[in-house]
Sequence to fold (470 residues):
Amino acid sequence: MEEYVLNILKGSVLTLEVALGSLLVAVVLGLLGATAKLSQNKLLNWLAGIYSTVIRGIPDLVLMLLIFYGGQILLNLLLESVGYTEYVEINPFVAGVLTIGFIYGAYMTETFRGAIMAIPKGQMEAGLAFGMSNTRVFFRITVPQMIRLALPSFTNNWLVLIKATALVSILGLPDMTMLAKQAASAARGITPMAPMLFFLFTGAIYLAFTTISLVVLKQLDKKYSMGVRRGEF
Amino acid sequence: MQFDVIFEPATLKLFWQGILVSLKLLVISVSIGALLSIPLAVLRVSRNKWLSTPVWLYTYVMRGTPMLIQVYLIYYGVAQLDIVQANWDTVALFKPFKDALFCCVLAFTLNTCAYTTEMLAGAIRDTNHGEVEAAKAMGMSKWQVMRRIVLPSALRRTLPSYSNEVIMMLHGTSLASTVPALMDITGAARSVYSDYYLPFEAFITAGAIYLVLTFTLVGLFKLAERRWLAYLQPRKA
Fold:
């Protein structure tokens, strides 16, 4: 029994890696998506609109299966067309991270778009008037203020994302959930209670992750809201 | 692309039955979850710690763990216990666990009920103080204030965020495909994929079905908001 528990604990590291890796992808895609949605370019607007609507309208699991199995075939077809005939298998970790990142990038797009829109326009205009370039205005003026405005919904997205990583177990990545399931069926012969105990244990680790995230993000929120007066009732 | 495989009668039938299973799962779990969430939300905002803390704990645990784990816990954990399996023909309490659909509905209901309870509790807390005061001044009892003033308005104000929850649950029902005995939309797509090895065709079809269902739900909730939240809409010129 102990070895199974240790194994699940080891799997929790992979869960965290997948979650943090996808978060990075999601934040980059979210920033790109939000910029595209707010830009003057009609084509970019349209593309970002399709991205955030379609992705948010389809279950994560279906998208994952589509990107994971479909991406595999697509990649090999592409390689074949350039004359590379050997079968290439995508690393499931990379596939999982890119897929979850791609999905949650759509949610982040909306989060960041709302936050950017909430910053007074004069701030950016003042930056431009000072002779800063567009990129510099973005990183010096927009981003620092955006963080505070984006944090509440960023927190939500992160909590949903970390729970969504459980789905990579269906793609065959040995994360915490998959190891728990394997341990459950292996140890069922030892004691019929085993499956239940393993899933409860795994649930408790997820709960610990979400609890720690909430505490840390609350501290961040405090830091970034320094000097902001909230409405009092 | 070989979408003609999708339009073969056998495949179409598979997807159609998948849609029925998904909608059945969604309707049952969302409606039971919503009904249970009303008393739970009232307990959640209660000033009595003995009443509010257990509800808080329940919502905290359900919202802090993946729904996949919850489904596994019930299907592979509880339903596979020897005591349950040995007695499910005789003990009425264990009988439903024989059915995979019931296990999924139980997990989904517990999950959606937790989220809905928190939303509704938030709306109850946000009720305008003056409304409650006025009701008290009219001589209503605490229970009457809750039933006549707070709940009707809180239920309406939960509508926009509740529509998100229902859509999340529609997407959540795709987890039913992880239980062997169930064939929902995702399950149908997975079986088409494994029969024909056509991932794009199978999962794009499933995705399109979910998109249509999602937009239908969004439309229905828009109608519901127009009906019940008309008084909160911005004034039209």
